[in-house]
Amino acid sequence: MLTLDIFGFQALWSPYFLLSIVVLTVAYFLLTVNFRGRFTESEPLTAKQASYFVTAMILIYAIKGSPLDLMGHITLWAHMIQMASLYLIVPPLLVMGIPPWLWRAVLGVPVVSTIFSFMTKPLIALVLFNGLFSIYHIPLVFDTVKQSMLLHAGYTGMLFFLAIIMWWPIVAVLPDHQSLSGLKKVGYIFADGILITPACALIIFSNSPLYATFSDPVLWAKSMELCVSPTLLAGLDLSGPEMFSSMSLLEDQRLGGVVMKIIQEVVYAVFLGKVFFEWYRKEQTGIDPEPEPIVAE
């Protein structure tokens, strides 16, 4: 059985992507610490906000820049770990990691505010994300997207934006942009879990491999070009994912669906607990929970 080392350091660790993550993180701290005085009503960055953002950046690199990204083109279970992490864990961390005053600056632009307010309406946010997520896992759509760098970047980027939209009603940091409160958030999370289930069920209970980009050697090689140089691939003479995994395609597919569902259940359970205890505390005290003390610059 072959190992991923044959693809080389650049394909495994994506150094240019790492550089972009570092630049984005540095820009975040410059904006929120050094240059925040240029924004009206800005406040010092808190330790919690910084930790949320840095954690999100580390996860993004682990998902899209580490060997996990390469494995996601070889096995469906690794791909589903990517999907679950990128759309269910990273977005709420980013929303909570960006200070409220910076959100106000962005949403202060009239056009942005109008579009954002419309798309973050709970029903619209749920339908948009879960609808596009389910459509992505239709075999014809999945295989088509996986064979084009442009389509893959566009569709996954759109899903990531819609994931932020979907999470906003739960973790919004601006009181005037919170469309849900109390137990309504609990109902929203339950609805979200129900809507994402069909895509997982399709993958788990299918009796045959669904995706040609994992079962067809030609299409698999084409999808691998998203993260590996075509010249390098041509010189390796690979026949398919079975050269890197002992699992059958059907076992891999079912494991992918199970992994996606488990991660989704764990993430939603954490936020259900968070929402419930915040609601309970508010009911007992009559006030919203205060943010943690602000750290010095």
TrEMBL record:
Listed InterPro entries: Caa3-assmbl_CtaG, Caa3_assmbl_CtaG-rel
Topology with respect to the bilayer: Multi-pass membrane protein
Keyword terms of this UniProt record: Cell membrane, Membrane, Transmembrane, Transmembrane helix
UniProt GO cellular component terms: plasma membrane
Localization in the cell: Cell membrane
Keyword Nucleotidyltransferase listed: no
Membrane-spanning ranges: 12-33, 45-64, 124-142, 154-174, 186-205
Name this polypeptide is given: Cytochrome c oxidase assembly factor CtaG
Lineage per the UniProt record: Bacteria, Bacillati, Bacillota, Bacilli, Bacillales
